Amino acid sequence: MTALEVRNLHKRYGPHVAVDDVSFTVAEGEIFGIIGPNGAGKTTTVESIAGLRTPDSGSISVLGLDPVKDRAEVRERLGVQLQESSFPDAIKVAEALEFYSSFYRDPVDWRELLELLGLTERRNTRYKALSGGQKQRLSIALALVGNPKVAILDELTTGLDPQARRDTWSLIERVRDTGVTILLVTHFMDEAERLSDRIAVIDGGRVAAVDTPAGLIARASATRQVRFRVSQPLARSVLAELPDVTDVEITGDRWLVTGRGQLLSSVAGALARAQVVGHDLRVDQRNLDDAFVAITGRAPAERRAG
Ligand SMILES: Nc1ncnc2c1ncn2[C@@H]1O[C@H](COP(=O)(O)OP(=O)(O)OP(=O)(O)O)[C@@H](O)[C@H]1O
């Protein structure tokens, strides 16, 4: 079943077009990633889905409901963690959760949520005394306290250290396993690749591509690279003339061979025939960063501040 459907979304701020024409659907139980350059329209898109912005044209359906017309019903079913959430410094973790729970008809037991998020020991800690990771986990808890069917997470792990990021990823997978559909906006390609079932690349207010992470990577580049050092001198032509090879770079005893198809077995076979051993042989896997560059023409922006 479809959890979210966005059709031809268009939104301007005065003369400035923030979202030009965005369409995608998200199936129930999916983790759907949204990536794209700064200012591409990602936040405006998810804020429109959350009913926080009114589209100029196009339609949005959240579990069959309209976020603007059916605002109260959508709020019951949709949890939102937006960029840079902030709370009064003096509020305690438990108070914030108790307060948020009171907004919902059928909230989850927030004590269980604290346990799931590893915040039980911080229940009486004031917001200002929490670490960056704990604040982030609290904002996730607040997005989930209403027992939503769909959760929007914008910049989930910005500002977290590598261990906290990995812990948060496992947490999101556990949340998905409870049946929640997740819309994830992120600047981190490793995060999008690790968590998303499918990803939309938004660029200039439009959807440039929608596919599985593997599909985007394969679509963006069929090239592969093999690196190694040689045990003894070898003529460049031995590898450069192989049908799968498109480029060979040699720096001292280090070789970098670029090509397509079964590049590794072609290179290994040619080295064996020439009776040369390739040391430290490594195949460079293409990843979502490469796909992002190929699709948008820009490098992904990394955000680690905070
Ligand atoms: N309230 C606003 N008023 C005017 N312009 C805005 C407003 N909010 C966003 N914009 C502009 O609309 C465009 C899209 O912004 P949006 O925040 O949706 O992009 P984004 O992809 O989420 O960007 P980022 O990755 O930097 O968070 C940007 O050019 C931004 O400057």
From TrEMBL:
Which InterPro entries does the annotation name?
Answer: AAA+_ATPase, ABC_transporter-like_ATP-bd, ABC_transporter-like_CS, ABC_transporter_ATP-binding, P-loop_NTPase
Q: Which GO terms describe its molecular function?
A: ATP binding
Coiled-coil residues: none
Origin superkingdom = Bacteria
CDD domains associated with the record: ABC_DR_subfamily_A
Chief location bin: membrane
| Positions of the ABC transporter domain | 4-229
**Keywords of the record:** Antibiotic resistance, ATP-binding, Nucleotide-binding, Transport
Q: Which Pfam families match?
A: ABC_tran (PF00005)
* PROSITE patterns for this protein: ABC_TRANSPORTER_1, ABC_TRANSPORTER_2
| Topology within the bilayer | Peripheral membrane protein
Which compartments does it reside in? Cell membrane
Q: What is this protein called?
A: ABC transporter ATP-binding protein
